[in-house]
Amino acid sequence: MDLTIAEENYLKAIYHLSEGGKKSVSTNDIAGEIQTKPASVSDMLRRLSDKHVIQYKKYYGLQITESGKQLALQTIRKHRLWEVFLVDKLQFAWDEVHEVAEQLEHIQSSLLIQRLDAFLNYPKFDPHGDPIPDEYGDVRSRPRIPLNEMNIDQVGQIVAVKDSSAAFLRYLDKVGAYIGARIKVLDKVEFDGSVEILVDQKKTLFMSKDVASNILVLQS
Amino acid sequence: MDLTIAEENYLKAIYHLSEGGKKSVSTNDIAGEIQTKPASVSDMLRRLSDKHVIQYKKYYGLQITESGKQLALQTIRKHRLWEVFLVDKLQFAWDEVHEVAEQLEHIQSSLLIQRLDAFLNYPKFDPHGDPIPDEYGDVRSRPRIPLNEMNIDQVGQIVAVKDSSAAFLRYLDKVGAYIGARIKVLDKVEFDGSVEILVDQKKTLFMSKDVASNILVLQS
DNA sequence: AAATTAAATTAGATATATCTAAAAAAAATG
DNA sequence: CATTTTTTTTAGATATATCTAATTTAATTT
Q1: pLDDT, tens digit, for every residue of B35-74?
Q2: What are phi and psi of B61, to 5 degrees?
Q3: DSSP secondary structure letters along chain B
Q4: How far is the CA of A48 from the C1' of C1 (A)?
Q5: Does the domain at residues B145-219 carry the CATH identifier 3.40.47.10?
Q6: Is-contact A154 A219, C-beta < 8 A?
Q7: Residue among B100, B107, B119 minimizing CB distance to A100
Q8: pLDDT means per 10 residues in chain A (220 residues)?
Q9: In 10 A of CB A136, how many CB atoms?
Q10: Cα angle vertex B182, ends B177, B188, to 5°?
């Protein structure tokens, strides 16, 4: 039983919200995540339930099933592999890839994804630093902490961002805080939580707590 | 005014049928080309006419407009570029690419196609030997003739096939008559039109007129 | 616990895309 | 040229996916 593109998008949103730590996923949450109205979500939940990718009781709540989780992970796998392709092979900037990957993730061909994976040399992380599930849906994530929670003199590498809006990504690119950059915490201001960091051992950068909390660092 | 995926597919079919030499394109022809029913075609013709990509008069006939032609050519451009990608970069066999390219051709991103074109080094022909329209819709096609119309001792290169069904393509691969193969006509049997050719200066091959007429050769 | 507010669902519409069956128009045939 | 056949179109259904407005259920407040 195959999913339509709309169903795949809803399921991916539900998966992301489920993994996002929140105890339960509400109709309103889903509507907010995919820019639609709660009425449309209710409709879709019934359909997803019919296809057994979620368990759903009206007015009560929902839970993603194991098969639903696997389908969502495969969509995420495709999305992130295409992002690597766009950045590594087609010289896209990392803030330009999302919209196109949203389309490419729905192409149906397991051979294509196998070959693409090999062509890209089996990448484990996408350009935003998010882990790429393998063909069995397994995800190896690295322990990452927000930049504002690091201590003075600690070093690490920027591996991901929480807020991946185009505006935020452009801001980061502009100030030179790209994914992969090696950083060292030089100073932290106690009362407002802002931080000063050294990027690639040459450039110092000040940023607010707000910005720093959206940058995830792999400590080394 | 953008076209839906279904509209793009109909328009592409109409373009192919229009270019196919036939004087007029019938509802039944289109239904046959796209595997749908004539009633669905009538419906779609009305919609395509509303969007001014064809001119259409009920019971009378249709003609593709200039803007329709341009849109069709851009879809064909995308299809053929993706085919080159699949064969050159992802090691797909040339008889495995069609179905996937049918999906990829609908991805909307002009930047993507620009970059893909550059990445593939601006190819002029797809793996089946068909010309790739440029970004302005211009097509430079090579003069090609069916293999059965060549004369004895003439040499050339296989550049395309008329019948691109998977069965025919697999047959060609099996006997070693791939796209790009250099051939020489050794003999022609008058009464049944069958031909004997030399492939890559080492392998001789017999084929019926039926097969030979579906193989297009660039003479040299 | 009754009243209010918030969240979720249903009812009814709209748009796309398809189908079958019936009707209308054009083409072919005797 | 009237009749038959073929082609094309319309009418009416179905399925997906969405919306607004109304209703129902759950949660919160007093």
Answers
A1: 999 999 999 999 999 999 999 999 999 999 999 999 999 9
A2: 150, 180
A3: -PPPHHHHHHHHHHHHHHHTT-SS--HHHHHHHHT--HHHHHHHHHHHHHTTSEEEETTTEEEE-HHHHHHHHHHHHHHHHHHHHHHHTT---TTSSHHHHHHHTT---HHHHHHHHHHTT--SB-TTSPBPP-TTS---PPP-EEGGGSPTT-EEEEEEES---HHHHHHHHHHT--TT-EEEEEEE-TTT--EEEEETTTEEEEE-HHHHTTEEEEE-
A4: 38
A5: no
A6: yes
A7: B107
A8: 95 94 87 96 97 95 96 98 97 91 98 98 89 94 87 88 84 85 90 92 91 88
A9: 9
A10: 75
Share of chain B above pLDDT 70, in %: 99
- What local confidence, expressed as pLDDT, does residue B173 receive? 83
Q: Give me the amino acid identity at B64.
A: I
Selected residues 78-97 of chain B with any CB under 8 Å from a CB in chain A = 86, 89-92, 96
Which residues of A fall within a CB distance of 8 Å from B113?
Answer: none
Q: B residues 117-136 near A, CB within 8 Å?
A: 119
A87 vs chain B: nearest CA distance in angstroms?
Answer: 11
Q: Which residue is nearest to nucleotide C20 (CA to C1')?
A: B39
> Using a CB-CB distance cutoff of 8 angstroms, which residues of chain B are in contact with residue A112?
86, 90, 100
pLDDT tens digits along B9-34: 999 999 999 987 777 899 999 999 99
Kindly list the protein residues whose beta carbon lies within 7 Å of any strand C atom. A 26-28, 38-39, 41-43, 45-46, 56, 58-60; B 4-7, 10, 36-37, 39-40, 43-44, 47, 59-60
Per-domain boundaries in chain B:
5-64, 145-219
Q: Copy the structure tokens of residue B2.
A: 């953008």
Tell me the per-residue pLDDT of B112-141, one tens digit each, with 9 for 90 and over: 999 999 999 999 988 887 899 999 999 987
Which chain A residues are closer than 8 Å to B81 by Cβ?
none
Report the CATH fold assignment for A5-64: Arc Repressor Mutant, subunit A (1.10.10)
State whether A112 and B90 contact (CB < 8 Å).
Answer: yes
